[in-house]
């Protein structure tokens, strides 16, 4: 495509009949270089002055050099075709050995391909589009930064202020679109997103810009990244219109990429006034005495060369242009020392073939390219090193436009993120710990409060939240304001929902819509309520809505916000009978048997021990000795024991007797004072076997569940929760119910009201708990 295009362009050049000898030696010491700029633009005028001063300064210092660059400056007028035409002319008629420029990324796409086919290095210090790759076009060098280099600094600002959404506003060109994929990736690393992308045509007029801004005002996002080239006047129009529409206020945040931030010093006072409060990132230029001296001379020279133009501030593009000339002049001297010749191998007459444009049979283009890549020095812009075929930088300056003046408020480095200061060596000594570590920022509207990044749109729709009155007002209660007819929802479910909204980094307008008529009568079951979300009646539904499998087929649920499970509410009864013989209740069979055995065992052991030492008090007839062995534990103080072992046994027995007595006393006291409450039903299968009546909340899915379990439909009764107490009190045999099947959270609310007389059995079945529907 480019071959054919260049042929067409060169065929339209003025006809010049000339012949080139087989070995044409260029005039000794002359090194022709083409320069293609948009000379009517700010950057073009700035670069022209910088380049001419670089020529003068370089050869004033290097008087002994045998070569001298001869610049052939051409005006592209911002047109891609014209830039390509000028490149062909420079190669065909002036045999330039290198081309500086062009200015725009779209122009560089054309010119770099022409230079690559001609084996002539093309060096641009303003083409920043990341899609321009030296891998595809090896003779193209970028003496500037790729736009992709700044996306991490932009993302760091977004992250530091906690914004989750951002809208890029960019010119609808290759330059404008080029940064977007890289910016998306950088934002996604910490969860931020682009809900909308605003692309503005280069041909857009003021009315179209205003229309796009009105469109942005209808969206909730209030953080904008503006990516425009300095040659595109839309940037000025954008901010002027934004201020007229009230978008330069405290609710908005504007961030400039380096396309505008690099030349913001040279914008008109009216545009700077409209930009007041905007942030921006741009390449950091280290201060030096040489830079200060050059800036003073440059200002004087620019005013001299442009008498009719207002003063212009030198930007990084002018410094890169200056350093590019120094790098190319050094490389030209090195190549010249190798006595390279620039040749033609055939007679050319009105040649339009790219293969004959400036081809060096001794590979001067390749040698010149290698020489440029080897140049590394400290220039006015900082370290100038093209070994990676483009400049590299790890430091960006963050600026804040305040009162018509860009003010440096901090820096971003690849190593430490956002910092406030740099020391003299450029290393960091202030670090980002929490929040942006910047000098106080003045936001649009001259406020110091950080914009939320989100606002209710001027004509935005409210989120419709469906609500339904629950049988448990503690969970959900829905009322209508008699004055405004507005729906008022309260309860634990509403508290959870509103707390979630408060914790979002942006505000969401919403309104409650009731699932019942003016008389408070529900329009259907909970299944019907959930289905309204699927029908689009509500955007979400909030309430005590159980997450069920059948409902997930037509609606999405949040995670549960309550504990899960289905249990029973059953009455309790006192399981003890207080009568005359209650003192025997603590004496269980095991206790009786153990006590008797221990009594006999203790007496027998003591009798045997005392018999060994012939204790006379334990002697006598067999019947007497048997009686002593049996009754000794009861009357241990009657007969005197002499054996030490016997006394130890008596001590152990006394301790055991004390434990038994204490345990008995405690149990008996408990029986006399504390109710021994026992549930009337312990298992759901017991209800099935006895054919008891059971109840559930009216409108709940639990009625169907009970049928699935095996209950007769005639034994299942629906109640309002307020009627559960009466129904349980009457009992199944008296027209009431024996148990209530309910969700665990609801049971706990019921038991908090009726703490006496009822208990919870279960959970008897699993459930997913309550959630919100979306």
UniProtKB/TrEMBL annotation:
Classification via InterPro entries: ANF_lig-bd_rcpt (IPR001828), GABAb_receptor_plant_PBP1 (IPR044440), Glu/Gly-bd (IPR019594), GPCR_3 (IPR000337), Ionotropic_Glu_rcpt (IPR015683), Iontro_rcpt_C (IPR001320), Iontropic_Glu_rcpt_pln (IPR017103), Peripla_BP_I (IPR028082)
Record's bilayer topology term: Multi-pass membrane protein
UniProt KW keywords: Glycoprotein, Ion channel, Ion transport, Ligand-gated ion channel, Membrane, Receptor, Signal, Transmembrane, Transmembrane helix, Transport
Highest taxon of the lineage: Eukaryota
Residues in Ionotropic glutamate receptor C-terminal domain copies: 462-774
Places the protein is found: Membrane
Subunit structure: May form heteromers.
Family statement drawn from the similarity comment of this UniProt entry: Belongs to the glutamate-gated ion channel (TC 1.A.10.1) family.
Protein name: Glutamate receptor
């Amino acid at each position: 495509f480019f071959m054919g295009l260049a042929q067409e362009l060169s065929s339209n050049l003025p006809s010049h009949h000339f012949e080139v000898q087989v070995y044409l030696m260029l005039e000794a010491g002359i090194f022709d270089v083409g320069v293609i700029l948009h000379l009517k633009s700010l950057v073009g005028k700035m670069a022209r002055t910088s380049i001419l001063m670089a020529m003068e300064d370089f050869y004033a210092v290097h008087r002994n050099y045998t070569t001298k660059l001869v610049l052939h400056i051409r005006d592209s007028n911002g047109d891609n075709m014209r830039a390509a035409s000028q490149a062909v002319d420079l190669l065909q008629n002036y045999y330039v050995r290198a081309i500086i420029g062009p200015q725009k990324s779209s122009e560089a796409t054309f010119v770099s391909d022409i230079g690559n086919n001609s084996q002539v290095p093309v060096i641009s210090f303003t083409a920043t589009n990341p899609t321009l790759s030296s891998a595809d076009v090896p003779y193209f060098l970028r003496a500037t930064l790729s736009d992709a280099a700044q996306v991490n600094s932009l993302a760091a600002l977004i992250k530091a202020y906690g914004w989750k959404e951002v809208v890029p506003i960019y010119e609808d060109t290759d330059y404008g679109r080029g940064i977007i994929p890289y910016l998306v990736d950088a934002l996604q690393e910490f969860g931020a997103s682009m809900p909308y992308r605003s692309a503005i045509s280069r041909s857009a007029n003021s009315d179209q810009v205003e229309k796009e801004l009105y469109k942005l005002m209808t969206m909730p996002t209030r953080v904008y990244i503006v990516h425009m080239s300095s040659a595109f006047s839309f940037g000025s129009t954008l901010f002027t219109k934004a201020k007229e529409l009230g978008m330069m206020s405290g609710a908005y945040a504007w961030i400039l990429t380096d396309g505008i931030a690099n030349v913001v010093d040279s914008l008109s006072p009216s545009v700077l006034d409209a930009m007041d409060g905007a942030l921006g990132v741009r390449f950091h230029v280290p201060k030096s005495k040489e830079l200060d001296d050059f800036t003073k001379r440059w200002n004087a020279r620019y005013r001299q060369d442009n008498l009719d133009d207002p003063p212009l501030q030198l930007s990084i593009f002018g410094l890169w242009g200056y350093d590019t000339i120094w790098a190319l002049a050094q490389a030209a001297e090195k190549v010249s020392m190798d006595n390279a010749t620039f040749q033609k191998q055939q007679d050319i007459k009105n040649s339009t073939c790219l293969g004959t444009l400036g081809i060096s049979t001794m590979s001067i283009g390749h040698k010149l390219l290698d020489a440029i890549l080897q140049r590394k020095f400290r220039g006015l812009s900082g370290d100038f090193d093209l070994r990676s075929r483009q400049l590299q930088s790890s430091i960006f300056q963050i600026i804040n436009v305040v009162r018509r003046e860009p003010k440096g408020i901090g820096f971003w480095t690849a190593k430490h993120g956002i910092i406030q200061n740099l020391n003299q060596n450029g290393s960091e000594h202030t670090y980002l710990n929490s929040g942006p570590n910047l000098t106080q920022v003045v936001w649009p509207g001259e406020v110091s409060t950080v914009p939320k990044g989100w606002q209710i749109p001027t004509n935005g729709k409210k989120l419709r939240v469906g609500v339904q009155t629950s049988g448990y007002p503690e969970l959900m209660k829905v009322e209508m304001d008699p004055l405004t007819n507005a729906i008022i929802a309260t309860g634990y479910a509403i508290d959870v929902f509103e707390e979630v909204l408060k914790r979002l980094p942006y505000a969401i307008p919403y309104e409650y819509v009731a699932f019942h008529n003016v008389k408070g009568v529900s329009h259907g079951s909970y299944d019907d309520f959930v289905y309204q979300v699927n029908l689009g009646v509500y955007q979400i539904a909030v309430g005590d809505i159980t997450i069920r499998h059948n409902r997930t087929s037509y609606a999405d649920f949040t995670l549960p916000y309550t504990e899960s499970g289905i249990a029973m509410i059953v009455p309790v009864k006192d399981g003890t009978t207080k009568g005359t013989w209650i003192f025997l209740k603590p004496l269980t069979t095991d206790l009786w048997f153990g006590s008797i055995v221990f009594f006999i065992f203790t007496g027998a052991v003591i009798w045997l021990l005392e018999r060994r030492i012939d204790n006379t008090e334990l002697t006598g007839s067999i019947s007497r000795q048997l009686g002593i062995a049996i009754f000794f534990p009861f009357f241990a103080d009657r007969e005197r024991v002499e054996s030490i072992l016997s006394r130890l046994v008596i001590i152990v027995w006394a301790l055991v007797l004390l434990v038994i007595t204490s345990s008995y006393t405690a149990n008996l006291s408990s029986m006399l004072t504390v109710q021994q409450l026992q549930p009337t039903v312990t298992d759901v299968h017991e209800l099935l076997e006895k054919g008891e009546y059971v109840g559930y909340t009216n409108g709940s899915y639990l009625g169907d569940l009970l049928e699935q379990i095996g209950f007769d439909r005639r034994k299942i009764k629906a109640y309002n929760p307020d009627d559960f107490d009466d129904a349980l009190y009457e009992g199944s045999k008296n027209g009431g119910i024996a148990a209530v099947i309910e969700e665990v959270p609801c049971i706990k609310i019921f038991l908090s009201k009726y703490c006496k007389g009822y208990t919870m059995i279960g959970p008897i079945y699993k459930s997913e708990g309550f959630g919100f529907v979306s």
